[in-house]
Every structure is written in structure tokens, then in C-alpha cells.
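Example for tutorial group B:
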């Protein structure tokens, strides 16, 4: 999957979980600081990333997800995004 398509899909996931408009989410928007996510919403984002992209996200990786950019880096490291 290409980076741009993955970024858009990640933004859609975050928007759905946080119930906000996708246009409010930039790649570098921090889940806690910029988007006011709580810890349960962050877990839900990690679970949806697992389902959508078909890759496991362990607890440590989930804890490190701080933004769409961080999620993209994780997907690159797992070979899902080129």
C-alpha cells in the first residue's frame, strides 16, 4: 500500500474513533495533545489498525502510537506501507 493511501485510511480510522471530522486530523496531530483522545480511544485506534491493515500491534507498539505519522512508521516497519 502506498503511503498516501495508508495515511488517508489512518486519518479515517482516527476520525471514526474520536468522532471528529477527518479534516481536523493532520499526519503530525498528536492523539492526546491535539485531538483530545483518551487512553481507551487510543487502544481502539490500535485495534482498528490491526483489523484494517492485517498486522498485529502489541501493547508496546500501541503505547508508542502518538500520531498518524507514528502509525505510518509502524506500518512501514511491518512492511505494509511502501
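The residue assignment follows.
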Amino acid at each position: 500500500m502506498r503511503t498516501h493511501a495508508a495515511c488517508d485510511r489512518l486519518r479515517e480510522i482516527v476520525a471514526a474513533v474520536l468522532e471528529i471530522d477527518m479534516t481536523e486530523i493532520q499526519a503530525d496531530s498528536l492523539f492526546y495533545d491535539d485531538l483530545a483522545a483518551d487512553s481507551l480511544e487510543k487502544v481502539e485506534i490500535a485495534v482498528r489498525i490491526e483489523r484494517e491493515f492485517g498486522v498485529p500491534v502489541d501493547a508496546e507498539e500501541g503505547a508508542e502510537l502518538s500520531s498518524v505519522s507514528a502509525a505510518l512508521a509502524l506500518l512501514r516497519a511491518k512492511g505494509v506501507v511502501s
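Residues 40 and 56 are 18 Å apart (CA to CA). Compare this with the pattern of hydrophobic and polar residues in the output above.
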